[in-house]
Known about the structure:
The chain is mainly α and 73 residues long. It has a domain at 6-53. It has four helices and no strands. The radius of gyration is 20 Å and the shape is elongated. The relative contact order is 0.15. The model has no long low-confidence stretch (mean pLDDT 86). This is Transposase.
Amino acid sequence: xxxxxxNFKLKIVQxxxxxxxxxxxxxxxxxxxxxxxxxxxVSAYKAFGEEGLQRKIVNEEYPVHSNWxxxxx
Length: 73
């Protein structure tokens, strides 16, 4: 799946909301393989504003447990 920047998503959402272009026409115009992401972006924008279009990057940290001493004895 392609990743799109928040600015790119916002541009398309605003164009959708301010014009008569359909999801399919916008997908064609911007060479997006499917109109589904645009539908999702519009929904997210309506629900959460610009923040809803930003990628959520979460790096979870996991503790390192070393039981090598237990297994080597």
